[in-house]
Amino acid sequence: MIVCMTAQEDFVDLFRDQVGPRLRAAGFKGSSPTWRRVSPGGDHVIVNVQRSQGNSADHIQFYLNLAVVPRAYWEFTPRRTKLPMANHGLLWRRLNPPPPHPTREWQLPSSECAAAVIERLDGVVPELVRLLDRQELAAFIRAGTKDWWLKGKPERVEAFAIVDDGPSPRLRELLDALDRQPHLADTSAWLRQRAYRT
After folding, report:
1. HEC string of the chain?
2. Are 169 and 82 in contact (CB under 8 A)?
3. Distance between CA atoms of 2 and 86, rounded to whole angstroms?
4. Please, what is the end-to-end C-alpha distance for the chain in angstroms?
5. How far apart are CA 160 and CA 74, in angstroms?
6. Domain segments of the chain: what residues?
7. Phi-psi bin for 54: left (phi > 0), alpha (psi -120 to 50), beta?
8. Distance of CA 192 to CAs 154, 158, 177, 184, 198, Å?
9. Burial of 126 (0-12, 13-18, 19+ CB in 10 A)
10. Are residues 27 and 129 in contact, defined by beta-carbon separation less than 8 angstroms?
11. How high is the pLDDT of residue 2?
12. What's the rounded Cα separation, in Å, for the pair 56 and 14?
């Protein structure tokens, strides 16, 4: 007997039975659609699968979202959820299908989709884990954050990345740069107070 799986069944199989166990083996917790790994200092990295609108049992399109949410940025940001989600990322990106795929959406059914998702995630998860180290994250921001979107100017983003490590010459340099931008005065004051709290 030939059993044909629907796109919905393929989707469940991919994320419940393949992606989920691989992410948990890398230290992430959660289940579809969101997995997160949290550092001892409370910083989050997030993997999220976002289904597109208009899907059916026979055809599913989805995005793979990645995010880095330092604890300081999460506590600074007005919240509507108990835990940070991918859209709260101080750094955020979409993990796109490999070329020559014409869009940023992944599609099921596809004979190549599952293998490509696993390959792309296996390639990016070590980078995500590395970005839980605040100094690694700061260096990554200074180097240009290829493929990632930043929530604000690099000096603002880097300040949020390292503020919970306490006062340092680099943090003072960043906060002085923010002080010279009037629209960031409140942010700078909040970061300065946090860095020098006792």
Report:
1. CCCCCCHHHHHHHHHHHHHHHHHHHCCCEEECCEEEEECCCCCEEEEEEEECCCCECCEEEEEEEEEEECHHHHHHCCCCCCCCCHHHCCEEEECCCCCCCCCCCEEECCCCHHHHHHHHHHHHHHHHHHCCCHHHHHHHHHHCCCCCEECCCHHHHHHHHHHHHCCCHHHHHHHHHHHCCHHHHHHHHHHHHHHCCC
2. no
3. 39
4. 69
5. 10
6. 7-132, 152-195
7. left
8. 17, 13, 12, 12, 12
9. exposed
10. yes
11. 35
12. 17
Environment class of 57 (CB within 10 Å of its CB; exposed 0-12, middle 13-18, buried 19+)? exposed
**Assigned token pair, 7:** 């796109």
Token readout for 153 is: 């100017």
Burial-class residue 183 by CB neighbours within 10 Å (0-12, 13-18, 19+). exposed
Q: What confidence score (pLDDT) does residue 125 get?
A: 97
Neighbours of 99 (CB within 10 A): 6
What angle is formed at CA 184 by the lines to CA 79 and CA 129, rounded to 5 degrees?
A: 55
- Tens of pLDDT, residues 25-83: 999 999 999 999 999 999 999 999 998 887 777 888 899 999 999 999 999 998 878 99
Over the Cα atoms of the chain, what is R_g? 19
